[in-house]
Amino acid sequence: MEGIKNRLIHNEFVEDVSRARMEVCDSCDAKDVKGKECAIPGTQPCCMMCGCSLSFKTRSLSSACPANKWYAVLTEEEEDELDKNIK
């Protein structure tokens, strides 16, 4: 859900993290551009390993790549706390 929120409400730090992560995903064999492996249809490109939309997952600061190509920046608790302080 955090990635969806961050996709709608732009934050420059989140966008920087997302861009860097997407560069890694763009060169990964597990990137599904056709959407066949997407957990939610129509949200491609997705990761074939977890089914997540890359547009959302790369913006979730507490998420990590299932292939360990990039890591979480914050814990879920830290991300929740950050959300409270931004509101």
Describe the structure.
The chain has 87 residues and is mainly alpha-helical. 43% of the residues lie in helices and 5% in strands. The chain contains four helices and two strands. It has a two-stranded antiparallel ribbon with strand order 1-2. The longest helix has 15 residues. The radius of gyration is 13 Å and the shape is globular. The mean pLDDT is 88.
Summarize the model shown.
This protein is mostly helical and 87 residues long. The protein is built from four helices and two strands.
Mean pLDDT across the residues is 88
Q: What letter string, H or E per element, gives the SSE order?
A: HHEEHH
Largest sheet, in brief, is: 2 strands, antiparallel
Estimate the helix proportion, in percent. Answer: 40-55%
Q: Note the beta-strand portion.
A: under 5%
What oligomeric assembly is this protein in?
single chain
Distance between the termini: 16 Å
Quick one: how many beta strands?
2
Number of helices: 4
Principal-axis shape: globular
Number of domains: 1
Lateral strand order in the biggest sheet? 1-2
Radius of gyration: 13 Å
